[in-house]
């Protein structure tokens, strides 16, 4: 596979680039990209070199949660950031990539949602709303692509140990403590699920996959050791 590595933090892209070169010398292209900036997204996607602009698989993974406050105490700027990233960013990218897929009658969009897009939990309000939007957009996209060979998948993970909780709370120790008494999913588990979906035969579209830690039964039900 040839990979376009797109993200806002350029230094992380270069770290990943070095890792890829070290492990398998996989061909890849670094694309600094803030999905919230509509004009920049268009400029960056439309200026991709010709050998990189026919995208076969788009993984919409940009997303975040900020705080766990009840709605009446919510921070408006946090709401804006979550909506801009989780919903509008996904839409901006998809809008620019889908026409090429339809023209080639080939492609696969994989949207990374969340169990919070299928259920709600206390103080998850706006984050949950954005992931419910990802669920609805994924289903709508699937309907809009019907009749073409373009596939659409939503992967909705439960608890995954990434930077997610540290970003949410701006507190590294709190994030460490959240994960310490149960076995969460790891980023590799979600990546493996995406790879599985992307490598099915072309007549197979895994429309939706909910993937949870074995110890998690809903957005708000975790079996923690000693509790």
TrEMBL record:
SUPFAM superfamilies named among the record's database cross-references: NAD(P)-binding Rossmann-fold domains
GO molecular function, one term: oxidoreductase activity, acting on the CH-OH group of donors, NAD or NADP as acceptor
InterPro entries: NAD(P)-bd_dom_sf (IPR036291), Sc_DH/Rdtase_CS (IPR020904), SDR_fam (IPR002347)
Sorted UniProt keywords: Oxidoreductase
Keyword presence, Oxidoreductase: yes
Similarity-based family: Belongs to the short-chain dehydrogenases/reductases (SDR) family.
Name of this protein: SDR family NAD(P)-dependent oxidoreductase
């Amino acid at each position: 596979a040839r990979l376009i590595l797109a993200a806002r933090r350029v230094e992380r892209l270069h770290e990943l680039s070095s890792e890829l070169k070290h492990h398998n010398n996989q061909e890849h292209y670094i694309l600094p990209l803030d999905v919230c900036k509509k004009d920049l997204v268009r400029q960056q996607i439309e200026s991709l070199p010709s050998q990189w602009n026919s995208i076969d698989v788009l993984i919409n993974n940009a997303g975040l949660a900020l705080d766990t406050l009840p709605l009446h105490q919510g921070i408006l700027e946090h709401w804006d950031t979550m909506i801009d990233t989780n919903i509008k960013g996904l839409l901006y990218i998809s809008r620019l990539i889908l026409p090429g897929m339809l023209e080639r009658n080939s492609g696969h969009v994989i949207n990374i949602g969340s169990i919070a897009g299928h259920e709600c939990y206390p103080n998850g309000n706006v984050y949950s709303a954005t992931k419910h939007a990802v669920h609805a957009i994924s289903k709508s996209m699937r309907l809009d692509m019907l009749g073409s060979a373009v596939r659409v998948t939503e992967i909705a993970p439960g608890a995954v140990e990434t930077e997610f909780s540290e970003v949410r709370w701006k507190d590294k120790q709190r994030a460490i403590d959240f994960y310490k008494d149960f076995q969460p999913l790891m980023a590799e588990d979600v990546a493996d699920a995406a790879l599985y979906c992307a490598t099915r035969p072309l007549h197979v579209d895994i429309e939706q996959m909910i993937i949870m830690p074995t110890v998690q039964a809903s957005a708000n039900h975790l079996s923690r050791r000693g509790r």
